[in-house]
Every structure is written in C-alpha cells, then in structure tokens.
Automatic annotation (TrEMBL):
Name listed for the protein in its UniProt record: Uncharacterized protein
Segments crossing the lipid bilayer: 14-34, 55-73
Key word Transmembrane present: yes
Record keywords: Membrane, Transmembrane, Transmembrane helix
Amino acid sequence: MEEVLNLFEAISPIFMWVILLGLVIFVGFISSVLSFHWKEYSVDAFKSNRMFRGYLFVSGVLLLVMIVALILTQS
C-alpha cells in the first residue's frame, strides 16, 4: 500500500488534471452517442430517459469522486 501512495505522490498534479479532463471529454462523447442511440432506437421513450438519467448520475458521481480524490492528494 505504501508503494502505491508513493507512486501517486511522484505523479505530477498537472498530469492528473489532464487525465481527468480527458475522462470528462470521453464521458461527454459517450453520453452524446448513447443519448442519440437511445432516442433513435428506443421502443419505450420513458425507459430510455430513465436509463440516460441513471447513466449521467453514475458518471457524475464517479467523476465527482475522482475530482475530490485528486484535490485531496494535492493537499
């Protein structure tokens, strides 16, 4: 466990923020693709809206956890 913590301390914070930005862009792209797919090929509009909201909620929570973890590792 100590080795993992030392590894994170050795990585530059700017590099971690760039990775996080890349993940946000990737999630945004996937969200737009899924939104188009679910709207275009959905049989039940209510079910597709519920799935998209669930996807955005889970993605948002995971991104928020990553941001908080990144901020905490820098302090």
